[in-house]
Amino acid sequence: DDRIPCEKGTKVPRFMKPNGNELWAIIMEKAYAKFCGSYANLAGGFVLWGWQTMTGNNVFQLTEEKSKQGNTWFREDMKAHRDDKNKRACGFSRTNEIYSEDQIWTLLKK
């Protein structure tokens, strides 16, 4: 299908609001909506899921854990969950990787 949903009686896209004439963003949103079953199914979720589906790379997040001994950061890998009703179903699994605040700054500088 080669149609973009628009506001009734206009050529203004109904969902994506590009800053200019960026057709690629509208087409990408439509592809995701088709994959997920509808535009409504795009609401909510994890931004990291979008990065993983766009790049094909594994993604992770670093989460801060505060304590009196000093704050540390731990790595959580995103894991897909098999769910035929929600193709975006995913969660995070904590790994054994732990970083100090100094190590985090070193990682960010790379």
From TrEMBL:
Highest taxon above the source species: Eukaryota
BP GO annotations: proteolysis
Alphabetically ordered keywords of this record: Hydrolase, Protease, Thiol protease
Record flagged with keyword Hydrolase: yes
Transcription found in the keyword field: no
Entry-linked InterPro entries: Calpain_cysteine_protease, Papain-like_cys_pep_sf, Peptidase_C2_calpain_cat
UniProt family annotation: Belongs to the peptidase C2 family.
Protein name, entry field: Calpain catalytic domain-containing protein
Phylogenetic placement of the source organism: Eukaryota, Sar, Stramenopiles, Ochrophyta, Bacillariophyta
